[in-house]
Amino acid sequence: MNYVILILGMAVITLLVRASVFVLGERAAFPPLVRTALSFVPVTVLTAIIVPMAVAPHGGAAELTWRNPQLVGALAACGVSALTRRPLLTIAVGLVVFFVWQGFVVH
């Protein structure tokens, strides 16, 4: 029952935060510092999701070896992103490296 209350509480808070932006509209003006900080949220959230999955894919200790296809694919994607700044190419190369590494190198 505690989990249900917790989930409902988070849903209500999320709804209030999101609805307030729509209800207030243009009247809610954020200071430049807050707008700058909010622009980093998507990158931060994606990093927080991807890095643990790449470094410790099985949920245990970090697997920083060449036999970790998630890590190799993520490193390849980082390299392509740094060189090209093209998101679709970055995703494609990361996936191809992951699957090739998993299929031919690890197994």
Query: What distance lies between the first and last C-alpha atoms, to the nearest angstrom?
Result: 44 Å
Overall shape: flat
Question: What is the ordering of alpha helices and beta strands?
Answer: HHHHH
Structural class: mainly alpha
Domain module count: 2
Calculate Rg over CA atoms: 20 Å
Average of pLDDT: 92
The residue fraction in helices comes out at over 70%
Number of strands: 0
- The total of helices stands at 5
* Regions with little confidence, pLDDT below 50 for 5+ residues: none
Strand portion:
under 5%
- Sheet with most strands: none
Characterise the protein shown here.
- By secondary structure, the protein is mostly helical.
- It has 2 domains: 1-30; 40-106, no CATH class.
- It has 5 helices and no strands.
- The chain has helices at residues 2-24, 32-39, 41-55, 69-84, 87-106.
- Helix 3 (41-55) packs antiparallel against helix 4 and helix 4 (69-84) packs antiparallel against helix 5 (87-106).
- It is flat.
- The termini are far apart.
